[in-house]
Known about the structure:
Layout: E1 7-9, E2 13-14, H1 15-22, E3 25-26, E4 35-36, E5 38-39, E6 49-53, E7 69-72, E8 85-88, H2 92-103, E9 104-106, E10 112-113, E11 118-119, E12 124-125, E13 130-131, E14 136-137, E15 142-143, E16 148-149, E17 154-155, E18 160-161, E19 166-167, E20 172-173, E21 176-178, E22 183-184, E23 189-192, E24 197-200, E25 203-206, E26 213-215, E27 220-221, E28 226-228, E29 235-237, E30 242-243, E31 248-249, E32 254-255, E33 260-261, E34 266-267, E35 272-273, E36 278-279, E37 284-285, E38 290-291, E39 296-297, E40 302-303, E41 312-314, E42 319-320, H3 321-349, E43 352-353, H4 355-361, E44 373-378, E45 382-388, H5 408-427, E46 438-448, E47 457-468, E48 471-480, E49 483-494
Parallel strand pairs: 5-6, 6-7, 7-8, 10-13, 11-14, 12-15, 13-16, 14-17, 15-18, 16-19, 17-20, 19-22, 20-23, 21-26, 22-27, 23-28, 26-29, 27-30, 28-31, 29-32, 30-33, 31-34, 33-36, 34-37, 35-38, 36-39, 37-40, 39-41
Antiparallel strand pairs: 1-9, 2-4, 3-8, 24-25, 41-42, 43-44, 44-45, 45-47, 46-49, 47-48, 48-49
Amino acid sequence: MIDTNFFVKKAEFNLAQIAEICGAALQNADRGGEMIRDINTMDKAGEGEICFFYDRKKKAAGAEIKASACVTTAELAPFVAPAAAVLVCGNPKTAFLTLNEAMYAEKRPAAGIAETAKIDPTAKVGEGCSIADYAVIGAGAEIGAGTVVEPFAVIGENCRIGENCRIGAHACIAYTIMGNNCYIYNGARIGQDGFGFQTINGVHKRIPQLGRVIIGNDVEIGACTCVDRGAMDDTIIGDGTRVDNLVQIAHNDKLGRGCILVSMTGIAGSCTFGDYVVCGGQSGFADHLKIGSGAQIAAQSGIMRDIEPGTVVMGSPAVPFKDFMRQVAFLQKNSNKFDQRKRKENMSENKIYNIEDIMNFLPHRYPFLLVDRLEVEVPGEKGIGIKNVTMNEEFFQGHFPGNPVMPGVLQIEAMAQTAGALVVAASGENAGDKKISVLFMSIDGVKFRKPVKPGDQLRMHVEKVQARRNVFVFRGKSMVDDKVVSEAEFTAMIV
């Protein structure tokens, strides 16, 4: 709901009239006489109100509309709640603007000159102007008919302000010629000295700024924005340009028609912009650049060289948008590789893992944890597991009484545990809480060459042959006193 304490409600319309105003087709022709008293957002509009639905990403929200009517596109119309009358048009955003202007207007101060306003006798103030309290208008200044000058605004001597302009509170304008229908927001500074000096014998000597600021018709300049006057030539702002709050436009800059400068854009001196250049927030420009018509500058870009017409650039220093995205993709890809390499390097620096580390890598526990120590030769690729075989192993109670021999299948299991610990160690993660398991998928080429007995130190040499996602193929051999006791090639899944 629009707060009429701040805005003037001009009229209410029925749906047939709204369809005509918006250039829309009313699908519920029998409801043409239904009155609409207000405009509201999709989520807040209720009975007697109208909303606008144009965002494809919010199709699901259409069913929740409680407004009496909704202006939308033919594509989105089927998603509007059944109770709402539907008005279909090509561009709901434009329709919103048109209906908004038909129903509402900003409050405008009454024409007249406040007693506390300070107007030089040689200044000329046109018919229907509103000059507020404590505004100052200098000698020889001319103010066009219907212009509003708000409190504490200052218009310097010999400035010319066109018709139906609005000069916001505390704005200061000097050395400026301004067209019609311009809006200078609160606190803007227009026409002050440009930032020019010459260093002579270690002293920064100010260079007199002898140019002006020329502002076209239908220009808006945001709150606390600064537009410097030229040094010799003029600073020029073209017709229809929109300048956001907190923008810096330096001396001798020339902006073409319809340019858009978003907040905190900074343009150094003597830059020339073509028509309809768009500058995202916090974009910055070096001096003496030429920016072609239709160029688009992404937010936070740094412009160091000329930009061709119609080019979209991004980054600092700015490059064409596609090149910027390639750079980002390259950096992401290679930073990931760097992180992986660094992680492996860190692991290789501490390439010996004790039983506590291995218990973090594997879920196995006594009596089935068959690796006491892990020595990493190549992280994730190659290593040695060590198993100290003692008479205390449970399996010796039955394999075999009086002639204890370590089962061959457990030697293969020990190789697989070594491979699993090697892979998990290389990931750089603590896998103890993730309940990782190493599951056999196949075993090939198994050979048992010598028995393994209590007192032997079993060294399992494993090397990765290939890997695909979480499936690994390793070749392994177990050794005692530098002699091979068993070997195999096995495929395992780590889950």
